[in-house]
Design brief:
Length: 445
């Protein structure tokens, strides 16, 4: 039996499970083969379990190298199954991805699967198992180069089955036990998003069930539905998990929240006090620094300085999940009641800081509700901020999308008060309008 990525953490756990299951000969392929860290210990462990082990140093995404490896497998012990566990993670914000980083992750997943298919198509395999990832099912923050290859594996398994060939693709959540997901930054991100790592013994037990039941494409993951589904559907509803009982009834309830809503943040508990004591330009600069530091932490940037205050956060990798986390962290730091669409209505750090400045100046905290805000004074303050002598360069351009969105919602609300049908303009509504409507209906505005 061939295991690609066989000396990696996941491949090693799979090899141990196969050895415990009585597989007599395991071929573990990886770039470094027996020179890989931990290979000697793994080999000894597998031998103690009763399996003979062959380590092969091979770039399995290279067709010629893979063909030589397969040709070297003895005819007395023909290849009976393939476990394609090899993977490369190179996570990062969308604006940091280039062709090289995309190719690096795709080659290991896609090219290897295609070569394995071509080179084993004439063999009578008992199993052709592709290790996919849940990142191919739903957009995982920072994995724009990793998700496509996994989605390909899911489709490729179906393609093989339609042609009468054995295949199954398992879209895995994170594995514990030393897998890539246990790197501190990755693990923290997964926990915040509600997808903590699985115990390897539980994962391999699930794999055994998948193979026993003859599945073609299946997902196996450890999901904290209260956290994951709330964030996944906070900006827009999704039918993807509507048949999952555990996901039913999870609703985003915290616009202000505490630090637990968004994980450990980069701001300290005394920020709200410093904000209350600051005025004018000092308060604005304090908020700009907060927004940039918080956004940098949420989006995986090393330093706040890497985020341009006038650049849209979506261009830096912001998605619906990280938008909710950003909103929660800012709400926890400032004590303000903030909408779920905060980062979409105010798309740049500078615009977002301006919104927070206006809210902080008007005293719109989580406890103040909506009573008595002086609209005329707020409009005057906005005009001074955008057109006054202290206005930052590009201030108007940075907030125009949010202003247009706000104006559209105000006009729609005015029309409703005049007796117009609430569904009259639904077909022409922008996505910001729909998000705002959802916010109001769910009690998050």
């Amino acid at each position: 039996m061939l295991v690609t990525g066989g000396t990696g953490a996941v491949g090693g756990h799979v090899a141990r499970w196969l050895a415990r299951s009585g597989v007599p000969h395991l071929v573990l392929a990886s770039r470094r083969g027996e020179e890989a860290p931990g290979a000697a210990e793994l080999g000894a462990e597998l031998a103690a379990l009763g399996s003979r082990v062959t380590f092969a140093a091979c770039d399995v995404s290279d067709r010629d190298a893979l063909e030589r490896l397969l040709d070297g497998i003895s005819g007395d012990e023909p290849l009976t199954a393939v476990m394609h566990t090899a993977a490369v993670l190179d996570d990062g914000p969308v604006d940091r991805l280039d062709a090289e980083r995309l190719e690096r992750t795709l080659r290991v997943k896609v090219d290897t699967a295609r070569h394995l298919h071509t080179l084993t198509e004439g063999l009578d395999l008992d199993a052709f198992v592709l290790f996919s990832s849940t990142s191919g099912m739903f957009a995982a923050a920072g994995q724009g180069n990793y998700a496509p290859g996994n989605a390909f594996l899911d489709a490729f398994a179906l393609w093989r089955r339609e042609r009468g060939l054995t295949a199954v693709s398992v879209a895995w959540g994170a594995w514990g036990g030393g897998g890539m997901a246990e790197k501190r930054a990755v693990s923290a991100l997964l926990n915040r998003h509600g997808v903590p790592a699985m115990d390897p013994l539980l994962a391999t037990a699930a794999l055994e069930q998948v193979l026993t039941h003859g599945e073609t494409a299946v997902a196996v993951a450890n999901i904290d539905w209260g956290r994951f589904h709330t964030a996944f559907t906070a900006v827009r509803p999704s039918p993807l998990f509507e048949d999952v009982p555990e996901a039913a009834g999870t609703v985003d309830t915290g616009a202000g929240g505490d630090a637990g809503d968004g994980g450990t943040g980069p701001v300290d508990g005394g920020f709200a006090g410093r904000l209350a004591a600051a005025t004018g330009r000092a308060r604005r600069l304090l908020l700009e620094d907060l927004v940039r530091r918080t956004a940098a932490a949420v989006l995986g940037y090393g330093e706040a300085a890497e985020l341009d205050g006038g650049r849209a956060l979506k261009e830096a990798g912001l998605d619906s999940v990280t938008a909710v986390e950003l909103r929660n962290r800012l709400g926890a730091a400032t004590g303000l009641q903030l909408p779920a669409t905060l980062a979409f209505d105010h798309p740049t750090p500078r615009a977002l800081a301006g919104f927070l400045d206006a809210r902080a100046g008007s005293g719109s905290s989580a406890d103040s509700g909506s009573s008595g805000e002086p609209h005329s004074e707020a409009l005057a303050a906005l005009e001074r901020a955008l057109a006054g002598p202290d206005a930052a360069d590009g201030a108007v351009e940075s907030v125009l999308p949010g202003l247009r969105s706000l104006l559209g919602r105000l006009e729609a609300a005015a029309g409703d008060r005049r007796g117009r049908s609430p569904d009259a303009d639904l077909d022409g509504a922008t996505h910001e309008d729909v998000f705002a409507l959802l916010d109001r209906e769910l009690g998050r505005a």
